[in-house]
Amino acid sequence: MKKTLFIILFVISLIAFGYYNFIYYISYSEGVRSGELIKFSKKGVLTKTWEGEISQGISGAQIFQFSVEKDKKEAIYDLKDLQGQYVKIFYKERYGTFFWLGETKYFVTKVEKEISPHFGGGKNIEE
Fold first, then answer.
1. Distant-in-sequence, close-in-space partners of 100: CB < 8 Å, separation ≥ 6
2. Distance between CA atoms of residues 65 and 70, nearest Å
3. What is the CATH number of domain 28-113?
4. Is residue 86 a contact partner of residue 54, using CB atoms and an 8 Å limit?
5. CA dihedral angle for residue 30, residue 33, residue 39, residue 45, rounded to 10 degrees
6. Pick from 69, 114, 107, 108: which is nearest to 88 by CA?
7. Are residues 2 and 9 in contact, defined by beta-carbon separation less than 8 angstroms?
8. Which of 26, 46, 53, 70 minimizes the number of CB atoms within 10 Å of its CB?
9. Would the CA dihedral through 96, 100, 106, 107 be positive or negative?
10. Rounded to whole angstroms, how far apart are CA atoms 36 and 56?
11. pLDDT of residue 124
12. Residues facing 1 on adjacent strands
């Protein structure tokens, strides 16, 4: 009886471990999006996560929501500093998420400031 219970618990643990590793380490896609950073905040009740939004249109008709992991300190600092400005974000999309990582499946890895194509002539700052 104890051996059967141990095997069942071991199999359940193995499945949970595999599921967590699949969700956390394997990305569905990676990409870049640009827009005006309209929101960036730390929120949550049990665990605090960094969440943000960029507007990808003049009227704000298309909103892209994203999360940032706690260990991405440089991205968090840049997003706080660039609030209200036009930014380019690099992200990875996961198959799912866990409540302690963030609310979305999109996780920002890097942030760059850009000049708005609507108001800045469409040139990148580095040019």
1. 47, 49
2. 17
3. 2.40.50.140
4. no
5. -10
6. 114
7. no
8. 46
9. negative
10. 7
11. 52
12. none
Asked whether the beta carbons of 68 and 75 are under 8 A apart, the reply is: yes
DSSP for 12-66, written as a single string = HHHHHHHHHHHHHH-EEEEEEEEEEEEEEEEE-SSS-EEEEEEE-STTS-SEEEE
Q: Which residues of the chain have pLDDT under 70?
A: 58-60, 119-127
Amino acid letter, residue 61: A
Six-digit token string for 114: 């850009």
d(Cα 56, Cα 122) in Å, to the nearest integer? 14
Give the per-residue pLDDT at 123.
52
Instruction: Note the pTM of the prediction, 2 decimals.
Output: 0.79
- The partner residues of 122 in beta bridges, in order of sequence, read none
* Cβ contact 93:102 at 8 Å: no
